[in-house]
Amino acid sequence: MTVSVKPGKLIKGQTGDWEVVIGMEVHAQVTSKSKLFSGASTEFGGEPNSHVSLVDAAMPGMLPVINEECVKQAVRTGLGLNAKINLRSVFDRKNYFYPDSPQGYQISQYKSPVVGEGEIVVELDGGRTATIGIERLHLEQDAGKLLHDQAPTMSYVDLNRCGVALMEIVSKPDIRDAEQAKAYVTKLRSILRYLGTCDGDMEKGSLRADVNVSVRKPGGPLGTRCEIKNMNSINFIGQAIEYEARRQIEIIEDGGTIDQETRLFDPNKGETRSMRSKEEAHDYRYFPDPDLLPLEFTQGYVDELKAKLPELPDQKKARFIESLGLSPYDAGVLVAERESAVFYETVLDGLADKARDGKLAANWVINELFGRLNKEGHGITASPVSAAQLAAIVGLIGEGTISGKIAKDLFEIVWTEGGDPRELVEARGMKQVTDLGAIEKVVDDIIAANPDKVAQAKAKPQLAGWFVGQVMKQSGGKANPQAVNDLLKTKLGI
Amino acid sequence: MTDLTSLTIAEAREGLASQSFTSLELTDAHLAAIEAARSLNAFVLETPDQARAMARTVDAKIAKGEGGPLAGIPLGIKDLFATKDVRTTACSKILGNFVPPYESTVTSQLWRDGAVMLGKLNNDEFAMGSSNETSCFGPVVNPWRREGSNTTLVPGGSSGGSASAVAALLCMGATATDTGGSIRQPAAFTATVGVKPTYGRCSRWGIVAFASSLDQAGPIARTVRDSAILMRSMAGHDPKDTTSVDIGVPDYEAAVGKSVKGMKIGIPKEYRLDGMPAEIEKLWSEGAAWLKAAGAELVEVSLPHTKYALPAYYIVAPAEASSNLARYDGVRYGLRVPGRSIGELYENTRAEGFGDEVRRRVMIGTYVLSAGYYDAYYLRAQKVRTLIKKDFEDCFAKGISAILTPATPSAAFGVGEKGGADPVEMYLNDIFTVTVNMAGLPGIAVPAGKDAQGLPLGLQLIGRPFDEETLFSLGEVVEQAAGRFTPPRWW
Q1: How far apart are the CA of A62 and the nearest CA of chain B, in angstroms?
Q2: Fewer beta carbons within 10 Å, N or C terminal of chain B?
Q3: Alpha helices in B128-195 (DSSP H)
Q4: Is residue B258 a contact partner of residue B227, using CB atoms and an 8 Å limit?
Q5: Catalytic residue selected from B104, B108, B130, B158
Q6: Contact of A230 with A208, CB cutoff 8 Å
Q7: Is B280 exposed, middle or buried (0-12, 13-18, 19+ CB in 10 A)?
Q8: pLDDT, tens only, B205-254
């Protein structure tokens, strides 16, 4: 699969422009009840060592047994990444000593991963997109956690996370700047969350990224890369790339060379620091795990999973544009987070006339609701205005019962006090006046009282807006704006 | 009570069923024999209280007519099998006083069927060895001696404790494991019957791992019939071991005594080694003649990659072992020798906990898996393994039912006699047996005669995958012809 790489933002150095080349390895914790090779729970936040089976603790004679749910999740993820699914893959042992790895090796997939090449389209600023190639996805065990702050002379080990299934998703080196990198992780996270294969909770460590960064003169040969390990924030990923690229450029421009090494990002100082050099890198002595047979399934199994995949963000976006006439930007905003899309679709479900009001509903979700939620610091799932309430408000506008202006007042009431929007409109007399006779009376009065403005408006029709404002003011905002406009045009003869 | 210990399992089964004696009497007889034979160092842990408790329980069941297929039969358990609440060490210092909170699948099936545990049997440390000299509990002594000599001989290994205990009438049968010959070679050295089942026939769950792709549990007993009886209880699919195979367990005992008429038996020409002792050659010919007399047809066959098997085995097995033994790190259980850093803790613990042979194999294994050497050693060895497997497949495809070979290139040797200067000298003991593990096939070692010094020698029969039954039928023919061999008691 060849992907045409989107050029990124170049960085100006003393010797001219530099291009950044980025590849990423994202570790996504698989959503499953039990671990990859044992029946222990994957629940987060249990008492230390309360979710540890004999297999997880690597007791003598214990054997791993593959958890089929994790395989299913990996295959579903592969399908969501438009990737090749390998019907036969192999689990290997990655050998290294560390107390968070009781077996003395991690069971991973080295030469034959369960998922091969794929690609995803990521959204950039200004409606631009970039296609990023996926190299592979494989299943592996997570490690335990060391606790260094429990005793003065010892470290403690918590094996709760040990053996939990991870998907390592490796990108091709197709990413060209920090914006693309952030967009890549954002999109990947979104896809995983739509699929329900990873909760994407970066704070809890459910999604972590290792970022490989190198720099080169545009179109030149690839530079030596450094790997920034264990990033668990999309913003930090952006900062780390910016810093690391500049660091490498400075070294090269000063006549130095880049050492291939593993680095860590310090978010407090905003810089990366060396963790270990290539020479210190482990020789992992990978070999096929003799305790496990190769992982094999049929194309039929894959097809069945494929048929049951939920609608993914790209498909949803296309459908919103196509069937509801949303702008690509609005559709993109709505589908970016699974919860937002779910909310919007619930609003749609509550509309009597989707074709008429779908677009209006999108505007309301994006502008009024998101705007307000952001201001108040709420997530969409904690919105005080429910999807059903918002649907009612939008419906009232669409059917002409209330004006957009009144709708904003209504929204405010629902936000603070709650209640059924339709009942509120009735009870508080917020209905739009569509009685032409009543509106005409108001229009006539205003025209009669302001002959000078009438003359001005006749000369300069744009000034008719002043009359609209006056009519709306006198009617308490309830006059139908279209009717007001039509009447004014006739009466003023413009 | 000596009478009771000399019974076979089949005989004891009848006696127990007819209530001629109780399991407690049978168990006590064996416990007394064990106590009297401590100089053999076959048991590393005796569990008399547990044995008597199990015997009483099973006696009550027998009285109600509820005894299982092994009801009341006292057995010894190789210390590689995890036994719940009973110390399990793999005869390595590194496991220290490890007491597993779980029971291996194979032993739990034996207890399910009514067997009684007498204790844990000595073996080479982590099953690495061919003489039972690498055990942290010291070498096991073979109850057999050369005629007119008091030289202490090894029982073979790694299941030396199992073989010695069965031969010396300390238990009626024993569990054992075989990675490159560890059941069949000690059986041959002690005139007992040892069965290495097809890879996947017995669950590996709860057995301390040596080399996962080669390890297989099996029985050592005094007769072919007894080994078949034990096999039926030990075998079976286990969802906890994904390499175990879901095929029904046949009534192996029914195969004992079945006619072998018309079976084609392969004699592999590559097993005729240069410098092979004449008495081994003679034994082999005799075995062939016995089978022929029973109606089998002897056919010369070729297993062309045989000579590469031993070197390939000594790459694959240590490679897997180096990784399997990484868990013994002093962090969670077993021995811990502290250090100033985690690195030092690992180094101190493993240097103190592992014996020379284990350390040697961990180093070999680490080396052959290293970047830059993997292709030349591990990968090539795996290719050789595929070829060895194919040799056998080609052979069986020609209608061969089983293959007859000597079990070992010599009889038992003296303690300290081999491998001191050159470990390869010891490794050569497995020359006839490793091919079977590399191909995942079943094999049986049956006592067939004695050498000039009066030491037992065995023949090996190699079968098709999951066709242990044919081996029991053929083994019975050899046993009938050769007779049974019991060491004179001197201990």
Answers
A1: 6
A2: C
A3: 160-167, 184-190
A4: no
A5: B158
A6: yes
A7: buried
A8: 999 999 999 999 999 999 999 999 999 999 999 999 999 999 999 999 99
Give Cβ neighbours of residue A300 (< 8 Å, ≥ 6 apart). none
- What token pair was written down for A13? 């150095």
Q: H helices within B18-102, ranges in order?
A: 23-36, 48-63
Say how many C-beta atoms besides its own lie within 10 A of residue B113's C-beta. Answer: 19
User: Strand B74-78's sheet: what is its strand order?
Assistant: B43-46, B116-121, B74-78, B173-178, B216-221, B193-196, B443-450, B456-463, B402-406, B264-268, B297-301
Q: What is the pLDDT of residues A445-457, one digit of tens each?
A: 888 888 888 888 8
Q: Evaluate whether B277 touches B455 at the Cβ level (below 8 Å).
A: no
In chain B, what residues touch A63 (CB-CB under 8 Å)? 204-205, 240-242
Query: Which residues from chain A sit within 8 angstroms of residue B95, using beta carbons?
Result: 60
Contact A340, A378 (CB under 8 A): no
- What is d(CA B440, CA B199) in angstroms, rounded to the nearest whole number? 5
For B348, the enclosing helix (H) or strand (E) is helix B342-353
Give this prediction's pTM: 0.91
Please report, as a single letter, which amino acid is at residue B89: T
ipTM score:
0.96
Q: Give the rounded distance of the alpha carbon of A17 from its chain centre.
A: 31
Both structure tokens of B118: 């007498």
The residue among B69, B38, B35 whose CA lies nearest residue B51 is: B35
Compute the average pLDDT of residues B55-79.
96
Element of type H or E holding B211: none
A221's CB contacts (< 8 A; 6+ apart) are: none
Nearest CB among A97, A103, A291 relative to B243 is that of A291
Cα pseudo-dihedral B141, B142, B144, B150, rounded to 10: -30
* DSSP-derived pairing of the beta strands B116-121 and B193-196: unpaired
Count of all residues that appear for chain B in the document: 491
Q: Which one of the listed residues B23, B78, B159, B322 is annotated catalytic?
A: B78
Question: Which one-letter amino acid corresponds to residue B390?
Answer: K
| Of B95, B243, B327, Cβ closest to residue A293 | B243
Q: How much of chain B is helix, strand and coil, in % rounded to 5? A: 45, 15, 45
To the nearest 5 percent, what fractions of chain A are helix, strand and coil? 40, 20, 40
B481 CB burial (10 A radius; 0-12, 13-18, 19+): middle
